[in-house]
Design goal:
alpha/beta; Rossmann fold; 3-stranded parallel beta sheet; 9 helices; binds nicotinamide-adenine-dinucleotide
Amino acid sequence: MTKALLLDGDALAVRLRADLASRVTALRQRGHSPCLATLLIGDHSASDAYVARKHADCAEIGITSKDIRLPHDIDPQAALAEIAALNADPSVHGFLVQLPLPDHLDAQTLIEAVDPAKDIDGLHPVNLGRLVAAAPGLRPCTPQAILALLRAYNIPLAGRSVVIVGRGALVGRPLAMLLSLPGTDATVTLLHRQSANSAAAIAAADVVISAAGVPDLIRGAMIKPGAAVVGVGISYDAAGQMVSDIAADVGQIARWVTPRHGSVGALTRAFLLSNLVTAMEQP
Ligand code: NAD
């Protein structure tokens, strides 16, 4: 039994999808029919499930979606040609290349082939560059989800010490940039495996966000009493069950904590659709 307040990302995602549904209705009334496409290469059961949820969310809020599947051994040039076709298709307003990719394909090459205006994952260097420049652009979805979750619970960020564990390109690095932008103003420490004194940084943090994918990496004894703790990293145990980066005992010490399952995933998908709708709302 946790004493901390649970950061319920699933409930927040329901509210965001309802808001998006009314924005989609407004777009349709102006003659625009939003369409999202996903490009899934090869057979990957987790990716299959993630893609299915994205299409279910689209159906719920009135966005048309296209589910494009390509064989696992597709030639890199043929994969790039599929991306070029989606870039050129005026009926598709945003799309993503589902990661991870088969080993023979380079993710960065494929991401850089996506038209930045259709890059609803927010991972194209143009959009990441706009994030660094604090200029308007499509932001990566999981970092947006984490910020929205912290804001929804009025967790103070301005001037506070936020520790992010894990410097991956999808979560840790862009999240560090997003939280430190003017207007959010967190003081961010980005920890990685080579960091000295990680324990001291975590113990002093007002907010700890773990995006490492290491089971039970953050334990109750490691954090400051009253801190907010967000689990993003996902791993799987021997039985195939999903395991959080956040140990169960964190809920006894923290003031706010994410549940051990769910929360950030549904919100991440909501921000994918938010990126699509926001891009279409531009004059
Ligand atoms: P990644 O593998 O690119 O990055 C993980 C980072 O954590 C790496 O930099 C690694 O060096 C670091 N790390 C590993 N062990 C560490 C340790 N003990 N101490 C400090 N750093 C350590 O992953 P990513 O794509 O950035 O995603 C991060 C995690 O978030 C993954 O587990 C991923 O599955 C998960 N994820 C969840 C959602 C969601 O919706 N819940 C969305 C995206 C990613």
